[in-house]
Amino acid sequence: MNTTFRFSRTAFSRTAFSRTARAAALLTAAGLALTACNYEEERGEAAPPTAEVAQLSVEEAWIKAAEDGMTGAFGTLVNDGDRDLVVTGASSDAADEVELHEMAADEHGAMVMREVDGGFTVPAGGEYTLEPGGNHLMLMGLTGPVQPGDTVTIELKLEDGSLVDFEAPAKDFAGANENYDGGH
Ligand SMILES: [Cu+2]
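That is the input. Now the predicted structure with copper (II) ion docked in place:
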């Protein structure tokens, strides 16, 4: 778990100082768009795609209502594309941090939740289920109470850098009180 923590700190600082890099990427994207327009004008046909848009959606999303601390978000990740999509991270205004969790047996054989290694892989044309007792999104350090009827927006980050937002309505749920093997 120490390794994971160190990794996320590195990722964070990388994000902080990569503003310039991002601005450069935006300029490049603008340049590509111009190139695509020119291509279309010259050839009279649509340009080949220069960037693929992630074809990921989240169906039947919901989040477990909670007063404070942490809570789980669930739903079905649906991949309409023809290549696998990997969710590598998530964030939300409703929490300090959002982790990708899985359930696994600890050294005593008890089922505990922990950060998943390598993200959630949604197969091409397939689904990936997030549910109580299984894989889930863990919102940690809630910034306020999540009450039944509230809607929480969560942003998924994909391996290719694209972002997918979805809304999760909050509801009361008695389960999903898994023990956390976070080691911190
Ligand atoms: Cu969890």
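Residues 19-43 form the longest helix (25 residues).
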